[in-house]
Design a protein that fits this description.
Layout lengths: L3 E7 L4 E7 L3 E2 L3 E2 L2 E7 L2 E8 L1
Antiparallel strand pairs: 1-2, 2-5, 3-4, 5-6
């Protein structure tokens, strides 16, 4: 799966939000175009933030 990053914004020091285009679509959850990436120490965790 590949998508371009359409926009990026930071909420705080540890969380960055990414909006992808074209929108990836999951059979189980539907569109997943907004992602929250959080840094904890040396690790990065990504989770779907919404459509």
């Amino acid at each position: 799966m590949t998508s371009d990053i359409e926009s990026v914004f930071k909420h705080d020091e540890n969380a960055t939000y990414y909006v992808l285009e074209p929108t990836p679509v999951s059979n189980q959850t539907g569109p997943t175009n907004a992602w929250k990436v959080k840094q904890v120490g040396l690790f990065y965790f990504a989770s779907c933030y919404g459509a």
